[in-house]
Amino acid sequence: MGISTTRAAIFVLPLMLAACAGDGPASMTYTDDRGVANQPYPANYKPELLAFMKTYLNNPVGVKEAMLAEPVQRTVGGRLRYVVCLRYNARDSDGNYRGQRERAVLYVDARLDRIVEDASETCAGAVYAAFPELERMVR
Fold first, then answer.
1. Percent above pLDDT 70 for the chain
2. How many C-beta atoms lie closer than 10 Å to residue 74's C-beta?
3. Stretch 109-118: mean pLDDT
4. Are 54 and 60 in contact (CB under 8 A)?
5. pLDDT for residue 77
6. 3-state DSSP call for residue 64?
7. pTM to 2 decimals?
8. Handedness of CA 120, 51, 106, 56 (dihedral sign)
9. Which of 86, 83, 82, 96 is nearest to 56 (CA)?
10. Would you list the DSSP string of 95-127?
């Protein structure tokens, strides 16, 4: 290989690798989900959510005003997902309450995928019911 061929390979290789990646990191998925098909209902959404919240909250003890909306399918980021909307008032690390928060919890393939902290648009119109299990959490 000559010097010009080596330089050409150095410039072409990243382009070839980028072409293999598709649309970039935003398009990567570990499931067959393409975003438009109906998702399976997350039957275990409450236990999964409680387990997640135990690690998500600085202090999971003494949560007040906990409310939960049943899972509904919504389009989030161009993909169809089951969304569970959650409201709660949790203590901060210093023991003081921070005020009520609203979060959207997204499920992919019937499993908890991630939590969206700015849930105002995603949870607009959600019908909430009491969620006493969250209020009874312990460390």
1. 74
2. 18
3. 94
4. yes
5. 87
6. strand
7. 0.72
8. positive
9. 86
10. S-B---EEEEEEEETTEEEEEES--TTTTTT--
- Distance in angstroms (rounded) separating the CA atoms of residues 132 and 27: 38
Q: 25 falls in which pLDDT band (50, 70, 90)?
A: very low
The answer to whether the beta carbons of residues 121 and 96 sit under 8 Å apart is no
Q: How is residue 74 written in tokens?
A: 């919504």
Q: Report domain extents, the chain.
A: 38-135
Query: Residue 56 has which token pair?
Result: 């998500």
Q: 50-56: list long-range contacts, CB under 8 Å, 24+ apart.
A: 50/133, 50/134, 50/137, 52/105, 52/112, 52/115, 53/134, 53/137, 54/137, 54/139, 56/115
* Interatomic CA distance for residues 110 and 115, integer angstroms: 14
